[in-house]
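Milestone M4 deliverable, item 7.
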Amino acid sequence: MATNLAAVALVERVGRRFLLAVSAAIMAITLFSLGAFFYFKEAEEAAACGGGGGGGRGSGSGGHGGNQTLPCAVETQVVQNYGWLPLLSLIVYMLGFSIGEDWASSDINRQFPKS
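Output delivered:
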């Protein structure tokens, strides 16, 4: 709510287009960091659990494909060192959304009514 009030105050000073650009940039950066976290987490888990593709003959359970039925319970270095990153990314994403994209959709609906 505080960022919405800040955005309303900033609209007159810096303009809507700038706030939309900043909002989009913040959201893109946070989504990229969230995706990178899960990419490296999965890659490290695959390396630690031996499931890096190329299982060859005898992999899997009873010849029903190469997928493991139970996940490997290994806490990776990515999770240990950067376990805070998903939560921070989502919080900053919500703040970035409320700076520009949140009110922009309602502003567009007012300018272009459906009927």
